[in-house]
Amino acid sequence: MPVIGMGFYLRYMMFVKVTPALSIFVLIVMTACTIIFPLITIFLMKSSKMITSVHMPSKEERRWPLLFGAFFFGLAYMIISQITEKFSGIDGLKHIAIAGVTTLMCCTLINLLYKLSIHMAGIGGLTGMLVAFAPQSEINLMYIIITAVFVAGLVGFARLKLSAHSSGQVALGYAVGFISQFIVLGFLSAQIL
Hints:
The structure is a single chain. By secondary structure, the chain is mainly α. It has helices spanning 2-13, 20-47, 59-86, 91-111, 118-133, 142-161, 167-192. The longest helix is centred in the first third of the chain and has 28 residues, at 20-47. The protein is globular, with a radius of gyration of 17 Å.
């Protein structure tokens, strides 16, 4: 979801257009830090028996992968922050990374007490980002937001159908993702207007 969100932002939300090379670099950083590095970490944890399954069925098994995920998102933030210092008008890129770290830290803290759906936090975060940025968008986001909510319903249904989560865990995951992204991005984007 972070790569999709960043790609959407680069395509439709940039008030100062960036070069294709910069866009590709940012997407490579996000892909490495939010997909590749976490997957490698999870497989290393599985092979060293720190977790029993890549599905991490218990909240105890999710603790370290979530912390590593937040760390890698923080790494993306640091790299993107270096880019935003060199170019003006692209602070929104680092705001997305800050919001991602915030969402993962919220998930990590809640996970200490209660298991929640990280899949739903991801799609909830994407939806929260779209809603937060809608007032500034170059295009009407209504249909895209409706599509995101529909996809969230499908993801939630799948998580329930697979018996991976209870309905409370699905709803909590979506709420944490949506609210954390909406608040952080809404606040930060208001600061740059």
